[in-house]
Design brief:
This protein is mostly helical. The protein has 2 domains: 77 residues; 79 residues. It contains 8 helices and no strands. The chain is globular and about 50 Å long. The model has no long low-confidence stretch (mean pLDDT 84).
């Protein structure tokens, strides 16, 4: 892992190719249910994301977000939580320049759906819902300081964010 990180930091122009390769591998491993390899790929992506804070990270971020979306679309709760945790790490990174074209509509919808999980196992249901709340928090954190991403406050997003939070607050009150 250290060699990959060193290579990416030394040759940031290769970062988009590294991201594309890892995205291809992750997609294949998710389809083949090889979740151990998926975890390794996401760990590599997380480390690359944390190590490479430069202009060349923009193409890599697109691959990264595509892979996170792949995990969130999975029916496997562990992969959904893994994708959420990676997105939250990404959301905590301050970017030098804003992204004009990056949209978070999919993530708002997916994290909101996770907040309303009806998984039969109560512990798994709680894990998915907590991950959904953390994901929504990450989306808000990533977009709130960016004038170009003011869309988070539009009714279409607020109509997903607010009910998801209230639903989980109500569920918590029902258990008390």
């Amino acid at each position: 892992m250290e060699k990959l990180t060193f290579y990416a930091v030394s040759a940031p122009e290769k970062l988009d190719r590294i991201g594309a390769y890892l995205a291809e591998r992750l997609s294949r491993d998710v389809l083949r249910h090889r979740y151990g390899y998926v975890v390794i790929a996401m760990e590599a992506l997380d480390q690359l994301l944390m190590a490479c804070h430069s202009q060349s990270i923009k193409p890599f971020v697109e691959s990264f977000l595509h892979m996170v979306a792949k995990l969130l679309e999975s029916q496997e709760p562990d992969l959904q939580v893994l994708g959420t945790n990676s997105f939250v790490k990404f959301a905590n990174i301050e970017e030098d320049t804003p992204s004009y074209h990056r949209r978070y509509d999919f993530f708002v919808s997916q994290f909101s759906a996770m907040c309303h999980s009806t998984h039969e196992d109560p512990e798994t249901r709680t894990r998915i819902r907590v991950a959904g709340i953390k994901g929504l928090q990450g989306v808000v954190r990533k977009t709130v300081n960016d004038e170009l991403q003011a869309i988070i406050w539009e009714p279409q997003h607020m109509n997903k964010l607010i009910p998801s939070m209230l639903f989980n607050m109500q569920e918590a009150d029902d258990f008390d």
